Amino acid sequence: MNSDELTHFNNRGEAHMVDVGAKPHSKRIAIATGIISVNETAFNKIRNGDSKKGDVLGIARIAAIQASKQTSNLIPLCHPIALTRVNVDFSLDDEKRSITICVQTENTGQTGVEMEALTAASVGLLTIYDMLKAVDRSMIISNICLQHKEGGQSGTWHRQP
Question: Average pLDDT, whole number, for the chain?
Fold first, then answer.
């Protein structure tokens, strides 16, 4: 099969769940990132930890972890997988008033963890939006993307700068 072929469609063009049963187990890692840009008030609430709803980044971290575990319930053709690790980090950029989320997901299995990392990054950023929308409805979520993946038949891939 060419890497250009879409594996979620059968020879009649119908969507189906890919059979991964014959694939060997391997260690798989994926890293996804995304950014949310906020106004000064929202940024200061995150930096100072004084949001009325609580610890914005702490809650967003838990939301991202939960989302990674629910990916197969949200994305119709994703396989339910047993994650062995989910790590969520945030970095703040004072100059741009933005927060970057970085999610690393891992498992040892027959299919990758890219969708879990991307889902976690998305939900983590959406949680930040939800918690701060009272002070900034103009927030922009952007640049959600896969940065790195390794394991499986396709090996290692890394986003070029």
Answer: 92
